[in-house]
Amino acid sequence: MCVKNMMSMKSRWTNEENRTFESALALFEEESPERWFKIAAMIPTKSVYDVIDQYTQLVSDVSDIEAGLVPIPAYLSFNLSPNRSSPSHRKKGLPWTESEHRRFLLGLEKHGKGDWKNISRNFVVSKTPTQVASHAQKYYMRQLNGDKDKRRPSIHDISIHLTGDSQCFHDYNNQGDLMMLFDSGYSHGYPYTDSLYI
């Protein structure tokens, strides 16, 4: 009965107390001899027992989440923020640089079409897999459309062709100049290339 009364008297933690508690957990190492006393001292409204109980509950919650026992919350499908209600407020993406496109082509050669995650992770680290997939879609559409002379120049005009052991890039924007690449080092476990016009 005594334990039950103590549990029912347990006070709720405010958001501020939780933030302080989590910061204190990061501040004091697990092996610290008086860790719980130091954490409790940072939260004047809580005792050492409250702090230990909160930690035990946190560990239990994390275990349940990692085990998949906690259902994913059903978020609202529409945006409640008045600032972002119209599509015109969307942040526009930054255009791809020529260097990013060339690394995309190398990643495409290494990992193949569809492996956007690895291309993003290993070659175009400045872009997300979704951005890489979108860029690939535009690149393939540009390659399929003929009549290159009548169109505005685009980064998607640059394509890769393998000739023996060397990789060559064709840049149709520069009147057919051929750009050859040669290995000059390694980046992310893959050859990093510099360009040379011939």
UniProtKB/TrEMBL annotation:
<dbReference type="InterPro" id="IPR009057">
    <property type="entry name" value="Homeodomain-like_sf"/>
</dbReference>
<keyword id="KW-0539">Nucleus</keyword>
<dbReference type="InterPro" id="IPR001005">
    <property type="entry name" value="SANT/Myb"/>
</dbReference>
<dbReference type="InterPro" id="IPR006447">
    <property type="entry name" value="Myb_dom_plants"/>
</dbReference>
<dbReference type="Pfam" id="PF00249">
    <property type="entry name" value="Myb_DNA-binding"/>
</dbReference>
<feature type="domain" description="SANT">
    <location>
        <begin position="8"/>
        <end position="63"/>
    </location>
</feature>
<feature type="domain" description="Myb-like">
    <location>
        <begin position="88"/>
        <end position="140"/>
    </location>
</feature>
<keyword id="KW-0238">DNA-binding</keyword>
<keyword id="KW-0805">Transcription regulation</keyword>
<dbReference type="GO" id="GO:0005634">
    <property type="term" value="C:nucleus"/>
</dbReference>
<dbReference type="InterPro" id="IPR017930">
    <property type="entry name" value="Myb_dom"/>
</dbReference>
<feature type="domain" description="Myb-like">
    <location>
        <begin position="10"/>
        <end position="59"/>
    </location>
</feature>
<keyword id="KW-0804">Transcription</keyword>
<keyword id="KW-0217">Developmental protein</keyword>
<dbReference type="InterPro" id="IPR017884">
    <property type="entry name" value="SANT_dom"/>
</dbReference>
<feature type="domain" description="SANT">
    <location>
        <begin position="96"/>
        <end position="144"/>
    </location>
</feature>
<feature type="domain" description="HTH myb-type">
    <location>
        <begin position="88"/>
        <end position="144"/>
    </location>
</feature>
<dbReference type="GO" id="GO:0048262">
    <property type="term" value="P:determination of dorsal/ventral asymmetry"/>
</dbReference>
<dbReference type="GO" id="GO:0009908">
    <property type="term" value="P:flower development"/>
</dbReference>
<dbReference type="GO" id="GO:0003677">
    <property type="term" value="F:DNA binding"/>
</dbReference>
<protein>
    <recommendedName>
        <fullName>DnaJ-like protein subfamily C member 2</fullName>
    </recommendedName>
</protein>
